[in-house]
Amino acid sequence: MCKIRTETRLCFLLVMILAVMLAGCGSSPAAESGSAAGGNPPKSEETADTAKSTEKAGGAAQAETARAAAADTAADAMKGASGETASAGETGVQTASAAATGSTASTAAASTASTERAASGVTGSTAEQAKEYAAQSRGLIVIDPGHQQYGNPDQEPVGPGASETKAKVSGGTSGVSTGVPEYQLTLDIGLQLRDELEARGYTVIMTRETNEVDISNSERAAVANEADADAFVRIHANGAGSSAANGAMTICQTPGNVYNGDLYADSRALSDCILNAYTQKTGIAYEYVWETDTMSGINWCRVPVTIIEMGYMTNSDEDILMQNPQFQEKMTAGIADGIDAFMADRTPKEH
Ligand SMILES: [Zn+2]
């Protein structure tokens, strides 16, 4: 109804605000006392995080000062001039803020967007601030690329205090068509997964980064335990007598595991999340989550743990597929998506 008059008033306000800004930029005692304008209080931690991101973006103090000053001025002017409604006041503040701070305001807007994306776990081509934000909060993942160049048949207990023993680490399988050994595939995917998770804002520790190591399964679990990892992800590929066997599975302990049955729910959730996301991303068939207490690397574990068997190296199609670089990107992204899903409703441990 009085749209034209409102716009005219807003223009007038803007000019006033700009004048105040130009005069007061730098010292600005108003900013220190500065409450936000009517109807626009800080909403949540998200708001605080946005402010943090803005600081990182540079020109921080100035941006905050300018914004607060503009907000105060706008609020005062609004109150004094017309008694506009709260929403009109808010519009005035936003407009004034944008006008007064120029590119800083758009930086703040970008920060808000990227912070929100980071907070919702969605990644993409966002600003660096999103990664910084994520790095502070997303968690610590230990990756164990299964096996090593030479297996070690020496025995170790299958769990803490167990009399039953198993080989410290076995040799693994190999590609029926490519001839690639399992320990090489698991290292290749493990290293790519490390890079992908770090890009998504996680901290990553590898149990190994070369094939020339000698680390038993219990020692691999100890790496995850000592780090107090949010998740311990063990990378393997499957082998079977029948070349027709295909598909992916994940493995965790049973609820009755005498060593770490208390961690069953978390490990099962991790196993579900990773198998769902991995099969969805790659199109590899979903086998099942195998619950077993026969894996020493799981039994020794004191943090949420899963083994992913990414596909069958004894199946020619899957063997060849798992050596395709583009397909490996999907494998890596699928596992990372599963970790994202697992961590989505969890608070990372303090490290
Ligand atoms: Zn294996």
Q: Could you walk me through the main structural features you see in this protein, from its secondary elements to its overall organization?
A:
By secondary structure, this protein is an alpha/beta fold. 51% of the residues lie in helices and 14% in strands. The chain contains 13 helices and eight strands. The strands form two sheets. The protein has a six-stranded mixed beta sheet, with helices on both faces. Strand 2 (152-157) and strand 3 (165-169) form a beta hairpin. The protein is globular. The N and C termini lie far apart (58 Å). It binds zinc ion. Zinc ion binds next to loops.
Provide key terms for this protein.
single chain; 351 residues; alpha/beta; six-stranded mixed sheet; two-stranded antiparallel ribbon; 8 strands; 51% helix; binds zinc ion
